[in-house]
Amino acid sequence: MIKKRVVLTFPHEIVSQPVVYHLVKDYNLMINILRARVTPQEQGRLVVEISGRKKELETGMNYLAELNIDIQPLAQDIKWHESKCVHCTACIPHCPTNAIFLNRDTMKVSFDKQKCIACELCIPACPYQAIEIVI
Q: Within 13 Å of residue 93, how many CA atoms lie on the same side as its CB?
């Protein structure tokens, strides 16, 4: 099983097509939509984690390319600087995936990079600039 985190950018003419459905049904892929911005008559953008066997993942990516969907690896990443963090917890309520959480045993903020979807909501919430985007 291979997992990929990618950004899919849809041209406006196929925004209304059931692309994710076909990836699941026809290519036996698991799709976890991490972030979506889709508006009719405009470009659509999904940040997804795609899981599946290598061969099925390749054929699914080919299907997306045939539809002229731009596929980019999730290049931006969130970096949490533990040394700058004062564990004030201001960022925690802004994290939609609980990637940033309070460890009740230590009463310190912790960061689980695997849960992070790079939504960037935590960045302006941190008064100590302990969180930044890495491109």
A: 3
Helix (H) or strand (E) holding 2: strand 2-10
In degrees to the nearest 10, what's the CA dihedral of 113, 118, 122, 127?
Answer: 90
Residues 32, 114, 107: CA angle, nearest 5 degrees: 130
Is residue 50 within 8 Å of residue 23, measured between CB atoms?
yes
Q: What is the pLDDT of residues 1-34, one digit of tens each?
A: 898 888 898 898 888 899 999 999 999 999 999 8
Through-space distance between the first and last CA atoms of the chain, rounded to whole angstroms:
26
Q: How many helices (H) and strands (E) does the chain have?
A: 3, 8
Rounded CA separation 61/49 (Å):
13
* Residue-wise pLDDT tens digits, 113-133: 888 877 889 999 999 999 987
Q: Using CA atoms, how far apart are residues 96 and 125, in angstroms rounded to an integer? A: 13
Whose tokens are 């690896």? That residue is 73
